[in-house]
Specification:
278 residues; alpha/beta; 8 strands; globular
């Protein structure tokens, strides 16, 4: 089974999605399961994992409802207020639904560059293992050293790095980013999504050869058993079609790592989120 490990849904409103600026005007509309399903089918994906884009409990409920109505949405990475004193009761309420597989916080937008190490946030993350939930690390490259400190505190918690920590594909300055990736990948409980890369390149003029060196660092650092493909649809549409977005990873897999194809395209996602058991 091929699984898109990172995609989003939303009902668009300017107030709720103020981050969608004029340059991203193509995203100013609804994106729902019936929009994604044909893209999955055309590109030989049988399932997906939907990821939160708004930090509300309401959206987490909504994504779980969508997954209930669309069996091919195998899991939801939702948002829970991990800093709340009643985080455990929030998790108890949501964890009754087996399609909740993980939690994410939009750390990249927090003004504190050391947000991941705030005591109340650490306390909330410490509860996730109890509910068999993963945590998505959404950060910029500058946050990689802090992310390494963060995961070091939780040797048994399953983590996944989103979008390769948004590497500097536009300017090609790979070394500082690669060093941070290697340090984070040294923790065996951290996986990584090969997602969100086309939007870190020049949207209008990017070429696959600009992205490939970053994919190679990911393979060298995480190995083929901790990487999974994700489209970041519909955000990817500002830079490429769904097909072109996933083709960058798939064609590189076929050329350099053909024996790893089934793992990166689905097997690792099944194992990381324990999707078969759910």
């Amino acid at each position: 089974m091929h699984i898109d490990a990172h995609q989003h849904f939303w009902r668009y409103s300017p107030a709720a999605y103020e981050w969608i600026d004029d340059a991203m005007a193509a995203l100013r509309r609804d994106f729902l399961p019936h929009d994604l399903k044909p893209e999955l089918e055309r590109n030989n994906f049988q399932a997906s994992v939907a990821v939160q884009s708004r930090q509300t409990l309401e959206e987490t409920h909504w994504l779980l409802d969508l997954a209930e109505c669309s069996p091919w949405i195998l899991g939801v990475v939702g948002w829970i207020d991990l800093r709340s004193p009643d985080v455990r009761s929030q998790l108890k309420a949501f964890a009754r639904n087996p399609k909740l597989v993980g939690v994410r916080h939009i750390v990249q937008s927090e003004p504190d560059d050391r947000f991941l190490l705030q005591p109340d946030f650490l306390r909330g993350v410490s509860v996730l293992e109890e509910f068999d939930l993963t945590y998505d690390i959404l950060i910029y490259t500058k946050h990689l050293p802090v992310a390494a400190e963060f995961v070091q505190r939780f040797p048994h918690q399953r983590f996944v790095l989103d979008h390769l920590a948004k590497p500097p594909i536009r300017n090609g300055k790979i070394d500082p980013w690669a060093q941070g990736i290697a340090r984070l990948a040294a923790f065996p409980n951290v996986f990584c999504k090969l997602s969100g890369l086309v939007t870190e390149a020049d949207w209008q003029h990017w070429k696959p050869e600009q992205i490939i060196p970053f994919l190679d660092v990911a393979f060298e650092s995480f190995g083929p058993d901790r990487l999974m493909i994700g489209s970041d649809w519909p955000v990817c549409l500002v830079a490429a079609s769904y097909a072109r977005t996933v083709e960058v990873v798939e064609s590189h897999l076929l050329q350099k790592y053909p024996d790893c194809k089934d793992r990166v395209l689905g097997g690792n996602a099944q194992r990381f989120w324990r999707l078969e058991a759910r």
